[in-house]
């Protein structure tokens, strides 16, 4: 009887062991998880004035390229060129002028002959909403006590602003001292155009010079605008290029091509930029 009981128990153990082994064998393949691709991230260094337009471009580009994500670094073009020269990883550079694009070429980050103009812009004078009528003509930039804020001359819009003042000083209606008198009113020089706009919008300065494209719907409600006559205005030209050591050169080139395409140009035009094509 004992012999039979031991035999039965042994047989039961063998059966259970076999079943467990079969279960483990069949479960093992299902437990192996293969990582799914997380997509590609394209890093774009772009002038601060391009912020809203490039976010909109990103939406359209990502729809056309599923699995692609655009990551932006917005700042003054001179700051971006310096970061590139210091080795900051990036895939595309969009500058508000050719000078900073040339600096990136000289630093070896952009291949010579690869940059292309992709948008135009022009300047406007903005002044505090709290002070309607403060600026009714360009000559008012020389009003005694006016708190004027400009971008630094190293910033593309700062350089363009100085060119505008130079142009005005050459005309008899403004006089040769116009530029110097206007610059006497400058209370700060900013590192990007959005800082100029923000100071005026917050009432920290009376007036400033920014790009026309900076005047989105929000800005229009926060500042007053005085146009600069065409004869005095400066044609700002933006340049774009893939970064030479991009880890995904094909995708970088695809984004540059998209910006230059009719769809990309149309989006830029919606944000106040002048189309190149």
Set out the fold topology:
Elements lengths: L1 H26 L12 E8 L3 H14 L3 E8 L1 H9 L6 E4 L2 H9 L9 E6 L1 E6 L19 E4 L4 H14 L8 H7 L1 E5 L2 H9 L5 E5 L5 H4 L2 E5 L8 E7 L6 H12 L1 H9 L3 E2 L2
Parallel strand pairs: 1-2, 1-3, 6-7, 6-8
Antiparallel strand pairs: 3-10, 4-10, 4-11, 5-8, 5-9
Helix pairs in contact: 2-10, 3-4
Mind describing the biggest β-sheet? 6 strands, mixed
Q: How far is the first residue's CA from the last residue's CA?
A: 99 Å
CATH homology group of the largest domain: Periplasmic binding protein-like II
CATH fold-level assignment of the largest domain: D-Maltodextrin-Binding Protein, domain 2
Low-confidence stretches: 1-38
CATH class of the largest domain: Alpha Beta
Shape: elongated
Strand order of the largest sheet: 2-1-3-10-4-11
Helix proportion of residues, in percent?
A: 40-55%
Secondary-structure class: alpha/beta
Task: Please give the number of β-strands.
Answer: 11
Fraction of residues in β-strands: 15-25%
Q: What is the C-alpha radius of gyration, as a whole number of Å?
A: 30 Å
Query: How many individual domains?
Result: 2
């Amino acid at each position: 009887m004992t012999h039979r009981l031991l035999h039965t128990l042994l047989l039961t153990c063998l059966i259970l062991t076999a079943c467990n082994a079969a279960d483990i064998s069949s479960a093992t393949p299902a437990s192996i998880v293969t990582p799914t691709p997380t997509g590609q991230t394209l890093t774009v260094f772009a002038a601060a004035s391009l912020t809203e337009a490039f976010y909109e471009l990103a939406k359209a580009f990502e729809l056309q390229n599923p699995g692609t994500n655009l990551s932006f670094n917005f700042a003054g073009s001179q700051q971006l060129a310096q970061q590139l020269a210091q080795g900051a990883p990036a895939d595309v550079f969009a500058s508000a002028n050719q000078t900073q694009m040339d600096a990136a070429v000289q630093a070896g980050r952009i291949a010579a002959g690869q940059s292309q103009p992709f948008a135009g812009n022009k300047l406007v004078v903005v002044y505090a909403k709290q002070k309607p009528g403060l600026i009714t003509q360009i000559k008012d930039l020389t009003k005694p006590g006016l708190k004027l804020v400009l971008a630094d001359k190293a910033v593309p819009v700062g350089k363009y602003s100085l060119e505008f003042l130079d142009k005005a000083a050459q005309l008899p209606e403004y006089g040769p001292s116009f530029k110097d008198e206007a610059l006497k009113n400058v209370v700060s020089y900013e590192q990007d155009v959005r800082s100029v706009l923000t100071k005026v919008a917050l009432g920290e300065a009376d007036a400033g010079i920014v790009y026309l494209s900076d005047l989105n719907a929000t800005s229009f409600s926060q500042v007053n605008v005085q146009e600069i006559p065409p004869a005095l205005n400066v044609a700002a030209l933006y340049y774009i290029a893939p970064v030479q050591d991009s880890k995904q050169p094909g995708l970088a080139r695809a984004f540059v091509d998209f910006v230059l395409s009719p769809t990309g140009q149309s989006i830029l035009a919606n944000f106040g930029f002048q189309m190149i094509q």
